[in-house]
Each structure stands twice: as structure tokens, then as C-alpha cells.
């Protein structure tokens, strides 16, 4: 079977206070992404957000509907999809249009596109498509966003170990979407802290996908309420589901990159409640 999925139900902050390490990882860590020859999804009940991956090798992979979960005739009947390639060169075919996607290029797929197929140029160096999907009320046009079309924010400093470039790819100043937003942040050599100050998005959820971690390295992802924090150690090409009530920030044992994806009540990138290190417990 070329498509797999699992369901994660929403969990409140009171329940999480009693979770041990294994329970935290089972609830919030996505550790089965980027399986070769497979499309894999987690259907989350936070904003009905879906996080997944597609890694085509010797044959294309189709965006199948997940009949038992979506109850729709095709995947994008009521959903929009964001795609970012973190592997070798490939292409995504939407209907009769082919979008070539090199590494770290993005594609927005709007509602009402029944035929979507993922391809790799070279099976030995396959494309690795990281996928996010959210409910959609309107059919906006598909749009590719190349590396040079991103809005880039240069934040942080080497002195505070968080010098980084935030590449805003699928946000409302670049692509029209219903609620989905995605981007890619890369930390410079010598920097390890992301998303400082830590913050919450009470009006939307967020998912962090960590990649480009060297062998043997890891990221410690912090979550939970500001005064009741928890942590999850994350390996390369794994993701953490961050509920609206949870902070998110992380620190790595080396520099790395991550993709952030959000959906919720609004499209204001700066709509967040910030918590400086001195406020965290």
C-alpha cells in the first residue's frame, strides 16, 4: 500500500501535565515521515491540520483521498495542500500542469484539484516532499514559490546563538490561501536556538519539521505552557505537533533547518504571544 495515515486527537494542557516521556512522544512527535515509496499522513484534530510526506522512487505516488478519514471524493475536495521539497529534484503534477520542484522550493495546491501526483527525477536521489494540509473554503490557484521568491527575514545574532534566516514561502503576502501558511528557517553555523523568544499562537496551531541534522545530532523541542514546559528530543526528518496552548522553541546540538506550518483563525504571521527566557519555567 502506497498511502498510510494515523489520527491524533486533540489533548489539553491539563492532561499533558501528567504525561511521561513516552506519552508525550506518542501524542506530539511525528517519527514516521519520509518513508521511501510511500505517502504518509497524520490527521490531527488541532485545526483538522494534516502533516505528511511523499517520497516517490521508481514510480510516481498519487495523492489519495483517505476514504475512511476525509469522507470526500478526492483529497482536495475540501482541503488545500502545501508542499516543500527537502530532497532531490522532482515534480508535482496537478491535473495537466507539471511543477518542477528543486530542493527547498514550495508549491501551493488549492482546493478542487482531484488529480495530484508526486515524482522524482532520480530514484537514487529521490525528492522528499514535506506536506501540510488544512480545510479550505475557497479554491485559490495553485502556485509554485521558488527560492528567490520567498520573503526572507534575517533575525537573531551569533552572540545569542540564534542567527537565522526565515524564508516565508506560503504566506498571504506571496500566495493566496484559505488558512495554510508555511515557511523554512535555517540556522547559521554556530547558532542552535530557534524561535526565540518562545511564543504561543492561541488562534492557530503549528507543526515543526526538523531536517538537515547531521548524523548523531538532535534537537530538543520545548513545548507546554510557559510556566509548565515539557521537552521532546527530535531526530532528523521528524516533526512536532504544537497545540495552540503550547509554546514552541528548540535548541540543537548543531545547526539545522526546520519547516513551520500553521493553520487557524487568521493569516497574521505576527499574531503571537511572546515569552522571554526569564518568563519560562
Automatic annotation (TrEMBL):
<keyword id="KW-0413">Isomerase</keyword>
<dbReference type="InterPro" id="IPR007045">
    <property type="entry name" value="KduI"/>
</dbReference>
<comment type="function">
    <text>Catalyzes the isomerization of 5-dehydro-4-deoxy-D-glucuronate to 3-deoxy-D-glycero-2,5-hexodiulosonate.</text>
</comment>
<comment type="similarity">
    <text>Belongs to the KduI family.</text>
</comment>
<dbReference type="GO" id="GO:0008270">
    <property type="term" value="F:zinc ion binding"/>
</dbReference>
<keyword id="KW-0479">Metal-binding</keyword>
<dbReference type="InterPro" id="IPR011051">
    <property type="entry name" value="RmlC_Cupin_sf"/>
</dbReference>
<dbReference type="InterPro" id="IPR027449">
    <property type="entry name" value="KduI_N"/>
</dbReference>
<protein>
    <recommendedName>
        <fullName>4-deoxy-L-threo-5-hexosulose-uronate ketol-isomerase</fullName>
        <ecNumber>5.3.1.17</ecNumber>
    </recommendedName>
</protein>
<dbReference type="GO" id="GO:0019698">
    <property type="term" value="P:D-galacturonate catabolic process"/>
</dbReference>
<keyword id="KW-0862">Zinc</keyword>
<dbReference type="InterPro" id="IPR021120">
    <property type="entry name" value="KduI/IolB_isomerase"/>
</dbReference>
<comment type="pathway">
    <text>Glycan metabolism; pectin degradation; 2-dehydro-3-deoxy-D-gluconate from pectin: step 4/5.</text>
</comment>
<feature type="binding site">
    <location>
        <position position="199"/>
    </location>
    <ligand>
        <name>Zn(2+)</name>
    </ligand>
</feature>
<dbReference type="Pfam" id="PF04962">
    <property type="entry name" value="KduI"/>
</dbReference>
<dbReference type="InterPro" id="IPR014710">
    <property type="entry name" value="RmlC-like_jellyroll"/>
</dbReference>
<dbReference type="GO" id="GO:0045490">
    <property type="term" value="P:pectin catabolic process"/>
</dbReference>
<dbReference type="GO" id="GO:0042840">
    <property type="term" value="P:D-glucuronate catabolic process"/>
</dbReference>
<feature type="binding site">
    <location>
        <position position="206"/>
    </location>
    <ligand>
        <name>Zn(2+)</name>
    </ligand>
</feature>
<dbReference type="GO" id="GO:0008697">
    <property type="term" value="F:4-deoxy-L-threo-5-hexosulose-uronate ketol-isomerase activity"/>
</dbReference>
<feature type="binding site">
    <location>
        <position position="201"/>
    </location>
    <ligand>
        <name>Zn(2+)</name>
    </ligand>
</feature>
<feature type="binding site">
    <location>
        <position position="248"/>
    </location>
    <ligand>
        <name>Zn(2+)</name>
    </ligand>
</feature>
